[in-house]
Amino acid sequence: MTVSRTTIKDGKEVTLKESMDKYDGSGNNTETIEYDEKGDVKKHESAVYNKDGDKTEETIYTSDGKIKKRTVIKYNASNDKSEEQNYDAAGNLIDKEVYTYNANGERTTEVTLDKNNTVTKKVIILYDKKSMPIEKRTYDGKDNLQSTKKIVYEY
Known about the structure:
The chain has strands at residues 2-9, 12-23, 29-35, 41-49, 55-61, 67-75, 81-88, 93-101, 107-114, 119-127, 133-140, 145-150. By secondary structure, the chain is mainly β.
């Protein structure tokens, strides 16, 4: 799907693309390009999906179409996102996030590791009896508490 804009400039009709989106047979957005007011690419992203419709890869491109960053996403047997790996333009691992879940399928930890597999950040998520998140604790790579976010619900 392409969205174009037509304007009159110096008495002439000028048509420029505003955006372009491509979709696969399941309706998943596989590519998005956004253009600036001159018609140059300002944003270009693509995505790959598995048979369940889960995004397994996302690529961000430079304005000239070269890979800037690529993210690979993995899922566990319950189809929960278990890991995100981020790569630079040369294909080198930048960092990754690993997620764990409890028996109720609630995400309980988010751990960020650098390219050497060293923990740089850890988030612990606590839930109430209604499976609603009530607290997020963020730690640095040395397990020092950096912040606590409490969530209160009114029923």
